[in-house]
Design goal:
Layout (H helix, E strand, L loop, with lengths): L5 H12 L9 E2 L5 E4 L2 E5 L12 H14 L7 H5 L2 H14 L3 E5 L2 H12 L5 E5 L4 H10 L2 E5 L4 H9 L2 H5 L4 E6 L11 H10 L3 E5 L14 H4 L8 E5 L9 E5 L1 H10 L1 H5 L5 H16 L2 H19 L11 E7 L1 H13 L2 E2 L2 E2 L9 E6 L6 H17 L4
Parallel strand pairs: 3-12, 5-6, 5-7, 7-8, 8-9
Antiparallel strand pairs: 1-2, 2-3, 4-10, 9-10, 11-14, 13-14
Helix pairs in contact: 2-13, 4-13, 5-6, 7-9, 14-16
């Protein structure tokens, strides 16, 4: 019998020939600034665990307390029998934190984006999207069946031109949504949100920002890009994550009560996926308290970020347009980036290489991620290994 999936094997062979085939490295123990991957202790420069909250004693105790008291799972989707008191408490805490009327927790940041975009728009509407928006936004746009207009990254004239093309849609009474990442996950730059909001308002468009990499990082106590730019009340839909800086898993949408009530009735991930277990909700509740009670954690993150960026740039590496703890080391060739990553791992530094299709062809890179938990010793050791390897490979 012929193998109906043989074509997949051929695609994998192509990846192997290009030296782009990879198995995920396996973590033993906790994910921290130093961790054990594939049996080797390394300085971990690849985690989204910006603040180290996954190891915070209060977080661990909250997760254990939730499990002991309320069980291992919720037992159902939110809209049937799976809305627990913890879900409601967490959503109230998020809404207060984000200065919005209400919030709704999703199973992941991906489902928060994809589920929201696909729910609030239909085939008669138009989406205007930055070309470097996250895959979850792109998938949500496709699922909505709305027309999609993509503008060049951070190009405000491009945004305005795309909105000009929506005149007939708006005159027919249909909706236009302008959507952007708050912090772009591959390049680490911050969206020009004040300008985006201003232009969108001129055309009567809905605004949506995905703050996955800004949550816990930008704004007062980590409130995100809306707070960073002082735009409370001016962005219609805010998406955040509970997995990166928050240290657990999940995503959320914050906005008006009308928006949240609508998503409860039409957001497919809410309607068809089991809700978070008590361990997750209790730990996330604790995380938002920690953000407000221990702001020095965020300051350590930014101190480490500035230190690392300055020295990486001084060594001669191209770090692109990064403005945040996401700091790419631009390489260009995908196979060379993979070799760079492998040599660093052998030298005790774990930095993942990213190549096509994660980033465009010819723009492969290492993506370094600094955390609040890294010591100066960690950062200096990582920098020394990156410099040595970069010189060996002719990157600097």
């Amino acid at each position: 019998m012929a193998d109906a999936l043989a074509y997949l094997g051929k695609e994998l062979d192509n990846l192997r020939e290009q030296k782009l085939f990879r198995h995920p490295r396996v973590l033993t123990g906790m994910n921290g600034p130093r961790a054990v991957y594939d049996g080797r202790e390394v300085i971990n420069m690849s985690s989204n665990n910006y603040l180290g909250l996954n190891q915070h004693p209060r977080m661990i105790e909250a997760a254990l307390r939730g499990t002991r008291k309320l069980g291992a799972g919720s037992g159902a989707v939110r809209t049937i029998a799976g809305t627990m008191e913890g879900h409601v408490e967490l959503e109230k805490k998020i809404a207060k934190f984000k200065h919005t009327e209400a919030a709704l927790v999703f199973q992941s940041g991906f489902t928060a984006n994809a589920g929201t975009v696909s729910a609030v728009l239909n085939k008669d509407d138009v989406i205007v999207s930055d070309e470097l928006n996250h895959a979850s936004i792109i998938d949500g746009c496709r699922l909505s069946r709305a027309a999609i207009k993509v503008f060049p990254h951070a190009d405000m004239e491009g945004l305005r031109a795309a909105l000009e093309d929506t005149k007939s849609v708006r005159e027919a009474g249909h909706n236009v949504l302008v959507i952007t990442d708050g912090v772009f996950s591959m390049d680490g730059d911050i969206a020009r949100l004040p300008e985006i909001v201003k232009i969108a308002k001129e055309y009567g468009a809905i605004t949506m920002v995905d703050d996955a990499h800004a949550s816990g990082v930008l704004g007062r106590n980590g409130r995100g890009t809306v707070d960073h730019f002082g735009l409370h009340g001016q962005v219609d839909i805010q998406v955040g994550t509970l997995s990166k800086a928050i240290g657990v898993v999940g995503g959320y949408v914050a906005g008006t009560q009308v928006l949240i009530d609508y998503l409860i009735h039409r957001g497919r991930p809410i309607l068809f996926s089991t809700s978070h277990p008590p361990a997750v909700t209790e730990a996330c509740i604790e995380a938002f308290d920690i953000l407000q009670e221990e702001p020095e954690i965020i300051e350590r993150l930014w101190d480490n970020t500035r230190y690392f960026k300055e020295r990486l740039t001084a060594l001669g590496f191209d770090t692109g347009i990064s403005e945040t703890p996401i700091t790419p080391v631009m390489v260009g060739d995908g196979a060379l980036a993979m070799e760079f990553s492998d040599k660093l791992f052998e030298r005790g530094v774990f930095v993942v290489a990213l190549a096509f299709p994660t980033v465009p062809r010819g723009k492969a890179r290492l993506r370094t991620m600094v955390s609040a938990g890294h010591t100066r010793e960690d950062l200096d050791a990582a920098l020394a290994a990156i410099e040595r390897t970069g010189r060996e490979l002719g990157i600097i």
